[in-house]
Protein 1
Amino acid sequence: MSGTSVTETAAQSTAAQSTAAQSTAAQSTAAQLRAQATAHGAHNYHPLPVMISGAEGAWVTDVDGRRYLDMLAAYSAINFGHRHPRLVAAAQRQLDRVTLVSRAFEHDQFGPFCAELAALAGMDMVLPMNTGAEAVETAIKTARKWGYEVKGVPDGEAVIVVFDGNFHGRTTTIISFSTDEDARASYGPYTPGFRIVPYADADADALRAAMDPNVVAVLIEPIQGEAGVVVPPSGFLASVREICSANNVLMIADEIQSGLGRTGTTFACEYDDVVPDVYVLGKALGGGIVPASAVVAARDVLGVFKPGQHGSTFGGNPLACAVAREVIAMLSTGEFQERSAKLGAHMLDRLAAMPESAVREVRGRGLWAGVEFATLSGREACERLADRGVLAKDTHGSTIRLAPPLMISEADLDWALDQIEDIAG
């Protein structure tokens, strides 16, 4: 007798039913979890309907077992991929020892973390915090305090110059100088002390015109991420540096997204051979495991703080320091910066080769790109990509942002780019 036996057929049927039941259960679980989030979570986000339950490397898995290639990497917070073995091991070692003591006491990870991060940035001192917004707030306080105590600006009159299209966080002070009404509207009264000028204008003439004796700092993203990965023209950052130096003003580079390997160098400022007075770092510093951020600067800048004048219970905690030290060690070899530069050039070349009838503009540097579609909205493009197993994020209408983990394979990257070509066409 040939063919499949009755027993085999029954077993296959049972397996198929089991798989279908698991799929239905997973879909039900996803629906239940989504309903909980809708009912009890504030609606301050509009996520794609992908219920992630696991992740490894450049891939995530939803509750139904479907895999997706992560082309966002949590806005660059997961530069080294999900659950990188070195970072997980560093966290586990520290979890077995001590995780939090507050800054009321010393711990053995703090000094090495500060020294190693300062060395990576070519600076003297580090002030650790937790989130990017906290680090930006800390940089604002640093600039004002430096302005009053070192530069000699009259008390209460300090001005910080910022750029239109900026995104530095969502605290009430930071959104006070945002030009994005979604981020800013209905949160007034707004914090004074900021002056907004155009980003990347020719020869930085608007920035020059904004200078006066009360300006203490210029706060700038070397590449504007939330605005759609807007890369300034060559020489713009050098002009900002020159203007700051000429006017005894601190240049503060917000490299929370652009720094730590994302653009093919350790810091995006390196493309213009610029060294700011202050780096603001975050996201990737925590290795995708813990929140970790920092302000890094010279001693004569961060030296303005005395005990009790600024702090954070969790800032610089042992667990965050241990993970961040491993991040710094991984960056110190240059391997991830080199991968970002090489794969980023490949990604941008492929994106730029897409027909103008489908893709209006491509902007980017390293493994970071903003893709503006000709006919698709950004949300629709991201939904189509998710259907094909690729995760990305839209911003400002027709633009999507791509920021895959720096450890992504070229084959996986090409597969994702294939999907983008297909939905764009």
Protein 2
Amino acid sequence: MMASEFFRSAMLACALAGGVALSACASVGGAAAKTPGVMDEAEHAKFERDRAAIKAMAGDYRVRFDFIETVGFTPDYKVREPDRSGGYEVVRVIEDRGDFISLQHILVIEAGDEKFPVKHWRQDWRYEPASVLVFIGGNAWENRLIDKADREGKWSQQVYQVEDSPRYGALGAWTHEYGVSAWTPPAELRPLPRRESTTRKDYYGVLAVNRHALTSDGWVHEQDNSKLAMIDGRKQIIAREQGVNTYRPNNQFDASVATNYWAATKDFWTEVRKEWDRLEVPGTSFGLTVQGEPEPVYEPLLELADNIEAGKTTTADAVAEARKVIAKFTTRDIGTLEQRLVKAAAGSAMMAAAE
């Protein structure tokens, strides 16, 4: 079974719903680390401590995902049962330019005697960024400009999906007080979580505070989630949820499943990231021309990577196809999601008629 096939079935239902973990693989780029601006000794020490905290999240992990709804805010709302899952995850630093660090997560799936990788999420960290890519609803994102005074000493975290399209971003400061290194941003909007995207239609997104903190035995991603719905034309929080994702070092699984996959496909994913990067122009927006889970985007890209690993296609040919997929399902004319869907359908009809 190929990873993309498993992803379409079981992964969407359970593994990615909880975010099975895997020890990602690529090596750090050889470019010398860059120290931004002119820092005094204390600022530089803080900057290096921040960097060390970010890079400490790399490793091979057993991951536990716990999500518990705590309260409902609309009449007759029934708080859902807790959602708990886990698995193995590899996290690797795939790029380090000093003021920019990229961490790739890869899942290691064990299905009977089979073991295979599934490329998971990516987190990019930028120091004192001029802009941050934030979700604005309806499968659209804005590269929001940040005033210089507001970004001093802070890092943005931008989270990307399995095929490197964006999910959400935020800006916050790392603190190292009371024996804990932690990064906590203000609440930002993020898309409907994958674990509920196929089972719930009563809300459209999450206003989330995401805290990352190092622990004595790994790290933790804590979430304070407010679930947002449109009711009578107004935004309404219908429920709150607490999430705790724990990453504990583990060497009891075959991390080479992930590292071998990355070694075979990292050049492909580098070019895919460049295509998405071209859309991230500061002060502008872009969106997808699909609704809900972007399966038409990620399924072909994951399959192209699988084919590279299996020797069925070259990286160059796969990159050419990936560019076509991304171009087909993205637009800078975001309007509303409904308008984008209508335009996309009309365009597809015209192409079919021309053929």
Protein 3
Amino acid sequence: MLLLGIDISETQRIKKSMGSRRFLKEILGSEEYAQLEKRGFPAESVAASFSAKEAFSKAVGTGLGSFAFREVQLIREKSGRPRLKLCGKAAELARGFSFSVSATHSGGFAAAAVVGEECRSAFVPAENKIPELRRIIKERPKDSNKGTFGRLMCVCGSEGMAGAAVMSAGAALRCGTGLVDAALPRCIYPIVASRLAEPVFTILDTGHDGKLSEKSEALFLEALAKSTACLIGCGLGKSTAAREETAAVLAKSEVPLVIDADGINIIAENINILKTARAKVILTPHPGEMSRLLKVPVSLIQSDRKKYASDFSARHNVILVLKGAGTVVAAPDGRLYENTTGNPGMAKGGSGDVLAGMTASFAAQGADPFEAAAAAVYMHGLAGDMCAEKLSQSAMLPTDIIDMLPSVFSIIGR
């Protein structure tokens, strides 16, 4: 189902009302106002914004009185492409639909057309990030093949922790990776292979000294060289081989690295090992792991999560994903994202493995590492919210989050 709204405004009429900044602040949202202020409030652009608000009201069939003008903003991207940003009652009216906008002005008139496309699921979060996700997660070309969507090396799992390998690799597969290579100890290969048919496997053996055998080390480095991203740490343990593998991916990988769980714990013992990294690194600690990285109490980190995440990111030149309620994603260049999706039902062992697999999947497919992490965090929480709605917070499982990902991708249209 499609919704369509079209409006034409007379530029001169809008210009007459612009004598007062009060009028502009009444009709323009804060971001919209700031953009137009930088350009000196050109009347034709203000009129285009006004037309977009009218067109949206016609698309949803309510008229302007059902929401505040400021709740519908016509935002101009750096590329010049317009998009609608909705909040408040306007966002509520938009639930179940994803809206796009086109605006133009000519000959004393401005016009806007707003199109609403029904989502395949009626579940849309209050903060609608669908346009951004559609930009980050590219469409799949008709002439594509598995190589088009990256090759992810998943170095996860150990004896007693096979589930971490299953969930991280399973989540990566569900997020569209072209090929997932699960590099894991021989002892857990039968377990993981019985749960996942899709990955290829790099099976690793160790010698009496606990180190990778010469053959396994060669296989490990060969798999790493073929990959477009690498995930290490989920259920990895802290064995001699695990330490060897962590050091190797940091020193030798030329593709983005996602480091989770025991990978983080190994790094925490010698934080300077991060200096050996040749590629962009994404660390995904929960507060306890962050405490080990920083050598400060969890309570202190939780008192100012954004500050600690940002400071660590800048100091060590990594993308930092500080998990928990309101997960924070920080980049060395100052970008910061605080997540709004998710619920307490996700506070179960395995949820982090799912998030790590999702993040690594998007990085393997070529997304900017910060955007890969932010998109994964948002979609992980959204899938969790949908699970809670369907299964309850108490009964939902991390594997249910993976099973819900197809519905999330349907909402996004990817």
